[in-house]
Amino acid sequence: MKINIMESYKPFIAIPVIITLIALALIIINGLPESIDLQGGSIAGLNLEKPVDRAELTNIISQGLGTTDLNIKSLTQTQAIVEIGGTVDVIKLTDSLSGVATIESFKSVGPLVSQQALTQVYWAIAFAFIFMSITVLIIFRNLVPSVAVILSALSDILIAVGGMSLLGIPLSVASVGAILMLIGYSVDTDILLTTRLLKRREGTVMERASDAFKTGLVMSASAISALSVLYIVVVFYIPYAQVLSEIAAVLIIGLLADLLTTWLMNLGILRWYLEAKR
Question: Which of 11, 186, 189, 245 is the least buried, fewest Cβ under 10 Å from its Cβ?
């Protein structure tokens, strides 16, 4: 027996809901790594005097400083970026790297500063989401469509953060900026859909939704394509600019999630609401 997908739309609402719950489980189980800016520690930029592999450089620094709390963020034939937890003696680091590398740049963040930064990050995300929700409620003045938009944006954020947890992308000032941008992207497509369905009167609900889908898909596809190019270029040609690849990765995950939350969950809820209202 054939099932008409246009008529059996309600089960599709569950797909983004399930993915959101999986992302939430990943965040709870795996946690979310934090960058040096938010957890405290030091970042050293090195100019390599000879090629070394990741394991060799890690071993040299570990023996010199007497710590294993370090991470080689990026490594090329001539340069490296190293994150080191805790307080670092720059003289010891310089001596341990003698004949291997020289320190080009060094940045240290204390625990008090990092804790303040982390608190500000949480407040920034919370205020952005709250003000977005208030704006949506004012625009539509209707609880169900407004809640659908807010739920869609919340799902996008949770899925993006779940992707960060899965891929090991640290929570940083840069990735928080990406999350804030993602809120704008998500609300943009959701408002487009909601406005077309509620404000316009010509055509059926699905005809108006189809028109909104074409516009929204072009917007999302353009953004995903541009960010994918940025990610590839940074990873393969500019590894020193890892912050850009992290921003691009977070936005790509969020925008892919937005395709599901907007056109399966939000559209499903709106269609259900309009049919019940009619």
Answer: 11
The phi and psi torsions of 25 (rounded to 5 degrees) equal -65, -40
Q: In the block, which residue shows the tokens 């469509």?
A: 145
Tokens representing residue 221 in the block: 């596809």
> What is the model's pLDDT at position 111?
55
Q: Which amino acid is at 45?
A: G
| CATH numbers and ranges of domains, the chain | 41-109 (3.30.70.3400), 112-277 (1.20.1640.10)
Lowest-confidence region among 29-38, 107-116, 217-226: 107-116
Residue range 50-62: average pLDDT?
86
**In angstroms, what CA-CA distances link 133 with 137, 220, 277?**
6, 22, 23
The β-bridge partners of 46 are 80, 103
2 backbone φψ class: left, alpha, beta (φ>0; ψ -120 to 50): beta
Handedness of CA 19, 21, 26, 27 (dihedral sign): positive
Residue 31, Cβ density class (10 Å: 0-12 exposed, 13-18 middle, ≥19 buried) = exposed
Question: Alpha carbon of 62 to those of 55, 65, 79, 221, 237: distances in Å?
Answer: 10, 5, 18, 44, 28
What pLDDT was estimated at residue 113?
53
> What is the distance between the alpha carbons of residues 157 and 171, in angstroms, rounded to a whole number?
13
Please list the residues that pair with 109 across neighbouring strands. 41
Six-digit token pair at 26?
């990943």
Instruction: Return the closest-CA partner of residue 73 out of 115, 108, 38, 42.
Output: 42
Q: What does residue 115 show for φ and ψ, rounded to 5 degrees?
A: -65, -40
